[in-house]
Amino acid sequence: MPQLNPNPWFFIMLTSWLTYSMIIQPKILSFISTNPPSNMESTTTSTTPWTWPWT
Length: 55
Description:
Layout: H1 6-29
């Protein structure tokens, strides 16, 4: 059964992970976010309790 032979597939997997880790991932992480978080003031809203008609 050829799928049990890890010789060619392990090298392909290792090469693809190294390519992703060393080349593609830093390029993706270097992009600046289009919507950076801003320091906004937190607003507190006043709520009124619900009045139940049967109490």
